[in-house]
């Protein structure tokens, strides 16, 4: 099989690393047509080109053949795999010669090409056409059976990290010999979408946290782009080394605050990789449009600096001293500029797991020039607000009737607090300052109060209310009398028995969210929340907990994780061609998520819908976000599709195999 890839090589040589590469120029012809012309001398035995199209079987185009592309949309802003094609179909005449490259993938190399390999699912005809005879055992099986088989082998691992590594091998290829798992991107995503509840804790929190901690030892194949201080001045070229050009989403971290685990330096790469797998599996963004990036400016983690297997720069972080801060800011600015230059202004950049001292500033600085979004500040806020809106249906009252207390006043804490205040203000027409007074935050020094204002970081200042100083959380609970307690401290087991009991004494149904990740950092466990509140707590956590049996009743905890929000939010931004993220889009995402909680879910005590319906949930979130983008005049894709939910579903990448004709 020969597959056509958009290549990042601009010299028209089209050599893309395959054993028998040869190149083509792809010309734009009248709308909905492409012309493919052979260029290079290295012609292989197959001379046709397969153009991938999400909704149609792969389309074969003979060389020098002018072929019409089925269903081509004159408007190029679309997602899904057909985007590659439309991307060039939109080129202007002076861009006619476009650097596409062809890599020949047939026979042995096809089985090792993650994007096109189907393993035993290649049918008889494909085995003949693509020189696979003899390279596979005779049986032909369906993708469904492959999924079943993979699940059996993954379930055999007892240790979650082994399951994680098996999943990564499927996505990236095993270097171990003999390979126990095949390299097959579609199978990876099919597995994840079909078994999302079982595999989310494997590829995401909590296991991804452990994977980052041990990344140096388990590292097998590079994935994503590593941009370190060594690459300063060359980031534009570094981006061009990435094999895909049509990037729609970048998740970037500098590794300084990985989950609640702290500074993991370059090993934080596991997080952008994990988040982007969810963009595809949960939100339907095409995998080739996703780019994980780690910015490496050193680490202050002594253990890593002394670890001989550490993969990052062996120096202390470029933060703290003024000259280092400039170095950091310059590197980030070069990165942000290069991204816009390479991928245009509609590429979504998700900031992930930056430390507080950079996260707020980066969001403020680039929020007006780029399509950026901070998952820890805004994504977490949106998912928590959705959970609260749903919880109020059980507890009663409006948001304005409740009092909120946070342990932790960093990105998540202040981000959630602000979104709640915005929503209260929107619902009641109350001034924002007034709405904020219903919300109190405790940080490592105690309750945030007016008398501390001079020493507070800027993002905490709006929360400094008139109140007596209080040092301990339990005293703050008794003093403030909150109806909702939210943990975003990054410190495990801080919701002690005393704290939960105090909440239960004050409230018939205390709402308690322990949001810190991974599980080890959760402020309390589900079991503790239900037991210490005598089964009265409405509980949700950032990392998953199993259902808990208490006095003969089974309680199913909610997972208030931003994974509910960012895939759908991202899809909505992409499909509308949005150029900026607006707070109202986060509110729209929250409302859309809360609306997905059914009566049946409520009857089971759930305040979040089950993850197994996440694709449908993401489509609704995407539609609401896109609608808001149109309403705010921030959407560039015109005309607005009539049915945004249907359009979102249509745009989603489908991991089912395509037939190669
Ligand atoms: O990754 C997660 O599970 C949620 C998150 O963004 C964080 O804890 O930083
Ligand atoms: Mg995060």
**Computed CA radius of gyration, to the nearest angstrom:** 25 Å
The CATH H-level superfamily of the largest domain is NAD(P)-binding Rossmann-like Domain
Total tally of structural domains: 4
What is the terminal-to-terminal distance?
A: 9 Å
Write the CATH fold name of the largest domain: Rossmann fold
Bound molecules: oxaloacetate ion, magnesium ion
Helix content percent band: 25-40%
Q: What is the average of the pLDDT values?
A: 85
Helices, by number, come to 25
Q: Which spans of ≥5 residues are poorly predicted at pLDDT below 50?
A: 1-104, 175-180
Q: Spatial order of the strands in the main sheet? A: 15-14-13-16-17-18-21
How many beta-strand runs? 21
CATH architecture descriptor of the largest domain: 3-Layer(aba) Sandwich
Shape: globular
Report the CATH C-level class of the largest domain.
Alpha Beta
Name the structural class: alpha/beta
Can you describe what's shown?
The protein is globular. It contains 25 helices and 21 strands. Strand 11, helix 14 and strand 12 form a beta-alpha-beta unit. Helix 5 crosses helix 6, helix 18 packs parallel to helix 19 and helix 22 packs antiparallel against helix 24. With 661 residues, the chain is an alpha/beta fold. The N terminus is likely disordered. The longest helix is centred in the middle third of the chain and has 22 residues. It folds into four domains: 86 residues, Hemocyanin, N-terminal domain, CATH 1.20.1370; 164 residues, Malic enzyme, N-terminal domain (Rossmann fold, 3-Layer(aba) Sandwich); 183 residues, Rossmann fold; 88 residues, Rossmann fold, CATH 3.40.50. The strands form five sheets. The chain has a seven-stranded mixed β-sheet, sandwiched between helices. The site of magnesium ion (MG) has 4 residues, from helix 15.
């Amino acid at each position: 099989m020969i597959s056509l890839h958009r290549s990042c090589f601009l010299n028209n040589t089209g050599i893309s690393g395959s054993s028998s590469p040869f190149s083509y120029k792809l010309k734009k012809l009248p709308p909905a047509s492409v012309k493919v012309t052979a260029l290079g001398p290295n012609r292989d035995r197959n001379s046709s080109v397969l153009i991938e199209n999400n909704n149609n079987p792969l389309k074969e185009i003979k060389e020098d053949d002018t072929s019409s592309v089925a269903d081509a949309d004159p408007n190029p802003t679309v997602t899904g795999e057909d985007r590659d094609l439309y991307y060039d179909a939109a080129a202007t005449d002076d861009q006619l010669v476009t650097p596409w490259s062809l890599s020949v993938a047939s026979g042995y190399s096809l089985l090792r090409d993650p994007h096109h390999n189907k393993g035993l699912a290649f049918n008889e005809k494909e085995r003949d056409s693509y020189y696979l005879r003899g390279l596979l055992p005779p049986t032909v099986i369906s993708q469904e059976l492959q999924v079943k088989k993979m699940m059996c082998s993954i379930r055999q691992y007892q240790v979650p990290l082994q399951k994680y590594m098996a999943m990564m091998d499927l996505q990236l290829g095993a270097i171990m010999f003999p390979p126990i798992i095949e390299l097959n991107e579609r199978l990876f995503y099919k597995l994840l979408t079909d078994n999302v509840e079982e595999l989310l804790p494997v590829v995401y929190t909590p296991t991804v946290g452990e994977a980052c901690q041990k990344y140096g030892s388990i590292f097998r194949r590079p994935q994503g782009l590593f941009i370190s201080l060594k690459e300063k001045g060359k980031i534009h070229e570094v981006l061009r080394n990435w094999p895909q050009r049509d990037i729609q989403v970048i998740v970037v971290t500098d590794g300084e605050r990985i989950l609640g685990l702290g500074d993991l330096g370059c090993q934080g790469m596991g997080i952008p990789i994990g988040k982007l797998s969810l963009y595809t599996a949960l939100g339907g963004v095409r995998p080739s449009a996703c780019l994980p990036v780690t910015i490496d400016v050193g680490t202050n983690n002594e253990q890593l600096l002394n670890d001989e297997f550490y993969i990052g720069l062996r120096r202390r972080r470029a933060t703290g001293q003024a000259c280092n801060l400039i170095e950091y800011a310059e590197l980030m600015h070069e990165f942000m500029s290069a991204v816009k230059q390479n991928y245009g202004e509609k590429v979504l950049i998700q900031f992930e797991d930056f430390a507080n001292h950079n996260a707020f500033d980066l969001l403020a600085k680039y929020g007006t020039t780029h399509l950026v979004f901070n998952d820890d500040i805004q994504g977490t806020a949106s998912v928590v607000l959705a959970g609260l809106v749903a919880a109020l249906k059980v507890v009663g009252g409006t948001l304005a009737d409740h009092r909120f207390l946070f342990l932790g006043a960093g990105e998540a804490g202040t981000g959630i607090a602000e979104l709640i205040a915005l929503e209260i203000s929107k619902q009641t027409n109350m001034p924002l300052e007034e709405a904020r007074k219903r919300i109190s935050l405790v940080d490592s020094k105690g309750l945030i109060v007016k008398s501390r204002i001079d020493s507070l970081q800027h993002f905490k200042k709006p929360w400094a209310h008139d109140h007596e100083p209080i040092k301990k959380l339990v005293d703050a609970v008794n003093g403030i009398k909150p109806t909702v307690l939210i943990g975003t401290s990054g410190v495990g087991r801080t919701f002690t028995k005393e704290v939960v009991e105090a909440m239960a004494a004050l409230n018939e149904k205390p709402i308690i969210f322990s949001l810190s990740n991974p599980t080890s950092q959760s402020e309390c466990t589900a079991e503790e929340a239900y037991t210490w509140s005598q089964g009265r707590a409405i509980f949700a956590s950032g990392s998953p907990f199993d259902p808990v049996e208490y006095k003969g009743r089974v309680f199913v905890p909610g997972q208030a994780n931003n994974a509910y929000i960012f895939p759908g939010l991202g899809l909505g931004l992409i499909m509308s061609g949005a150029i900026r993220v607006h707070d109202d889009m986060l509110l729209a995402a929250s409302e859309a998520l809360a609306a997905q909680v059914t009566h049946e879910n409520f009857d089971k005590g759930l305040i979040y819908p089950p993850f197994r319906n996440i694709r449908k949930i993401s489509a609704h979130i995407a539609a609401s976000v896109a609608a808001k983008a149109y309403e705010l005049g921030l959407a560039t894709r015109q005309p607005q599709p009539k049915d945004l939910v249907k359009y979102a579903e249509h745009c989603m990448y489908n991991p089912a195999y395509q037939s190669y004709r």
